Structure prediction request, 99 residues.
Amino acid sequence: MTEPDSTARTQYAQRVERRIRFLQTLKDAGLGLYLPADEQARQHSFDQLARMTARQRELPQLSADDLSKAAEAFRTHIDAMQGALPHDVQYKNRIRRNW
Prediction:
């Protein structure tokens, strides 16, 4: 692993952690993010969020595994926020979980 590659991955991981801390702050405030009802659209949104978090110069140095780990981390935290949404939104999303 080259030094710039390692630096890009480290900076990206730190940026993802900052975004997750922000999402946690929103959750603690009782807020949630609306997700698309379709599972494919939902997954596309998480993948896009992971890609958009990276800077343009970092993208060539990040592996698909780095991006998928970030997308899964975003998914975990945003899914946890769904309990803050009204029940009709949860029903519309076909999310039937015991929050």
